[in-house]
């Protein structure tokens, strides 16, 4: 189903786009299995209509949005972002969505809303990978409120001019381009504003390997592999990984005064 | 006696059959490469596939003795050398994939990997240890070093297989099911040996 941008975007990129075929057949989406091919093969069991997202917690106006209502909440932009996986591969994806800030403004966070938690669908009937305890379900991710409000942080509904394919996190997902891919929760059903830093599924799975921030950082290796370089899907030679995945100018100031080797 | 001569007649055919079967994963990779059928990240696919078959052939090689102990068949032992050499063949492909396709001779990155990342250290160690076993598998060298030394040298296969399985388990991000399957099979094979030794 088509989804067209209704607003132009200030966030273009000259990198060559990763082909749609590769974006849709090489996915980390453990809800449908732990290998890269499973999501494309198995995600058809996901039912994306009707779909609602409940926005709750430390907000003045908690509410439940229907997906069609959400699609019309703000003008959709096409944003070409680099995507860097923690496994040291990368892609360039033309996403469709609008800043999460647009949604946040409408629910009016209270002064206690220091963090935002994203919760994905939990239904082993639709998501057969959830029958395996490889992660704690539902999948949970989180951002600090200033990260969530950042104009790069995209509430995403589509890619390549279409609604999101199911294996890419339909019908609505996050895209936070300066963080490793796992931070960008897929198939979201709940967004919760909280006071305490939430614990994400990957932090539970490996606290010394996956931190809360997970900013792309070539200087801080994963305990078991190097993050200095990455293989862009389609390339033969690896390329150097850029600090904050090339978005340092926009986001580095969010982390002033923090030790990023500790807050990895 | 009649059984023995029948086996002698069948053996060459069995060897050809097993040889071709053992080559299948390699042929599938080559075909997949030319037909652009290795997915979005072909280098990763080749690395994983060659690693998987290295471990598989190590375990298949280690099955020959337990099979003889249980069934008293002798033919598995006569296939053992070829199977072991296939383990080495896939290990070479695995190592070359890492060296050429993955790192493209980036010496600094490779040295850092081998010295800093335990799973690469282990994989590399297993590969180095496997090399003398492959070299000493031909008859001339076997005769030269004597069967006692040969057996002593080739008992390295046990630590190699164990290190290989740990190498695999240590590199997966989260889903340990396949490495644990290898670990289970390997333990079973080693336990059968221990059981019959007593």
From TrEMBL, chain B:
Cofactor stoichiometry and binding remark: Binds 1 heme b (iron(II)-protoporphyrin IX) group per subunit.
GO terms, molecular function: electron transfer activity; FMN binding; heme binding; metal ion binding; oxidoreductase activity, acting on diphenols and related substances as donors
UniProt keyword annotation of Magnesium present: no
UniProt cofactor(s): heme b; FMN
Keywords, ordered alphabetically: Cell membrane, Electron transport, Flavoprotein, FMN, Heme, Iron, Membrane, Metal-binding, Transmembrane, Transmembrane helix, Transport
Protein's cellular compartments: Cell membrane; Membrane
TM ranges: 12-31, 51-70, 82-101, 121-141, 153-172, 178-196
Membrane-topology descriptor: Multi-pass membrane protein
GO CC terms in record: plasma membrane
Residue ranges of every copy of the Ferric oxidoreductase domain listed in the record: 50-165
Coiled-coil residues: none
InterPro entries attached to this UniProt entry: Fe3_Rdtase_TM_dom, MsrQ-like
Entry's Gene Ontology BP terms: protein repair
Transmembrane helix among keywords: yes
Quaternary structure and partners: Heterodimer of a catalytic subunit (MsrP) and a heme-binding subunit (MsrQ).
Family: Belongs to the MsrQ family.
Biological function: Part of the MsrPQ system that repairs oxidized periplasmic proteins containing methionine sulfoxide residues (Met-O), using respiratory chain electrons. Thus protects these proteins from oxidative-stress damage caused by reactive species of oxygen and chlorine generated by the host defense mechanisms. MsrPQ is essential for the maintenance of envelope integrity under bleach stress, rescuing a wide series of structurally unrelated periplasmic proteins from methionine oxidation.
Name of this chain's protein: Protein-methionine-sulfoxide reductase heme-binding subunit MsrQ
Naturally occurring in which organism (per UniProt): Methylomonas lenta
